[in-house]
Design brief:
The protein has about 300 residues and is α/β, with parallel strands linked by helices. It is built from 12 helices and 5 strands.
């Protein structure tokens, strides 16, 4: 009987040890990307609803705002039709719009191109108590322009560039993100990893459905001819910029509900780790205390 109890306990511990964790989706240099099998396994053991997670995320964001001493930068990067926009709507739907800053970075303007490649992002970094969400970001300058190096001409950079040029950009990004984390701003990054087949079907739906026509752009389909180049650019970016202080999480994106559930779970875990606390009342002098006492007594 004793041996039976020990065996059962060992099975339970082994099962618990094998349960998928969000750590599976945190990128480390040269490790393979997690896939849909990994996401399904994680979802089977984590059945908390997106609604519940999103409400807790909203509560934690309000707490961080009230505390007002730290902030969070959230970055989303992905190829077209991976589900960035819908994920932002669903995951952050209960957050107070006044507490959440979102910004989408398109092709740089002439003014933006006249400065260093991160210049346009600086004003949008979060202040104390804020969450800033970047829908694409300065990482575009290591992805799109790497696949299309002639875009660098607008920045007055002569092409072709050497491999060291991209390493310099990675190093600068790491320095900026490290500087942020040393100054009360945590950084978390999501790469939504859509498969080529799923992307194709979603692009077709954009063309076929009237309610999605506004998203359709023929250039998105043309970009698919560079798929392999983009994958190589993403791999290099992930390997060079996923750090202990600003990690990348790779989220398989072929199933949007499961993807959003994982994103929300990681967000809640990160905010809990930041341990925001309700601030205490500020000290009052004797006159203010008397005024408050009179106010309460005469209510």
């Amino acid at each position: 009987m004793i041996y039976a109890k020990v065996s059962v306990k060992m099975l339970i511990l082994k099962s618990h040890h094998c349960m998928p964790s969000v750590k599976k989706f945190r990128h480390h240099p040269d490790q393979p990307r997690p896939n849909m099998v990994d996401l399904r396994q994680w979802t089977e053991h984590n059945n908390r609803s997106l609604k519940s997670l999103s409400k807790e995320l909203a509560d934690l964001s309000r707490l961080m705002r009230a505390e007002g001493t730290q902030s969070l930068l959230v970055i989303f990067q992905a190829l077209d039709a991976a589900g960035k926009d819908s994920s932002l709507r669903k995951v952050f739907r209960y957050c107070d719009p006044g507490l959440l800053k979102t910004h989408s970075f398109k092709a740089p303007s002439d003014k933006e191109a006249a400065h260093d490649f991160m210049w346009r992002c600086y004003p949008h970094f979060p202040g104390d108590g804020e969450i800033s969400v970047f829908n694409r970001s300065y990482y575009e300058e290591t992805l799109v322009v790497r696949v299309h190096p002639h875009f660098l001409n607008k920045q007055h950079i002569k092409t072709p560039v050497k491999k060291a040029f991209w390493q310099q950009r990675f190093d600068y990004i790491n320095q900026v993100e490290h500087h942020l984390t040393q100054n009360r701003t945590q950084v978390i990054k999501f790469m939504l990893d859509v498969s080529k087949d799923s992307q194709k079907q979603r692009l077709i739906r954009r063309y076929a459905r009237q309610d999605k026509n506004w998203k359709f752009n023929i250039n998105d389909i043309k970009e698919r001819s560079h798929w392999d180049k983009y994958q190589l650019a993403y791999d290099d970016m992930l390997n060079k910029t996923s750090t202990d202080y600003a990690p990348w999480y790779i989220i398989p994106a072929d199933d949007k509900p499961m993807m959003r559930q994982l994103i929300a779970t990681i967000m809640v875990k990160r905010l809990k780790k930041m341990q925001p606390k309700w601030p205490t009342l500020k000290p009052m002098d004797e006159a203010e205390i008397d005024f408050l006492a009179e106010f309460i007594e005469n209510r």
